[in-house]
Amino acid sequence: MLSLGTTVLSVEDLTRAGDFWRAALGYVNRSEPSDDWVILDPPDKQSWDAPGASIALSVTGYPVHYPPRIHLDLYADDQAAEIARLLTLGAREVDFDGYPPDADWIVLEDTEGNRFCVIDTGERD
């Protein structure tokens, strides 16, 4: 049986992207980054094959594609607070016109243009 282990994001600036994702998710470097690669793990992950999704950042030189074919969904109990926090870390709002009237998600992009959604998982009336 397969399980999802690591999602790899292409980046231009490994330091900037690593700083963003470590602060955004509270992740830590699995090991020292190389010049073009780093894997970020949840802080309580005991081994590379333990449960818990990791993110790898890879300097590839490939341009960002729009619209992206893949993106991350990040869950938030307090969506507004998390969006505000992510924006202070360097995330950017995406001018997205495809929101349905009852959307529980907001599209952002990281410092490298990789898109992700912040999903409101808080209680609803």
UniProtKB/TrEMBL annotation:
<dbReference type="Pfam" id="PF18029">
    <property type="entry name" value="Glyoxalase_6"/>
</dbReference>
<protein>
    <submittedName>
        <fullName>VOC family protein</fullName>
    </submittedName>
</protein>
<dbReference type="InterPro" id="IPR029068">
    <property type="entry name" value="Glyas_Bleomycin-R_OHBP_Dase"/>
</dbReference>
<dbReference type="InterPro" id="IPR041581">
    <property type="entry name" value="Glyoxalase_6"/>
</dbReference>
<dbReference type="InterPro" id="IPR037523">
    <property type="entry name" value="VOC_core"/>
</dbReference>
<feature type="domain" description="VOC">
    <location>
        <begin position="3"/>
        <end position="121"/>
    </location>
</feature>
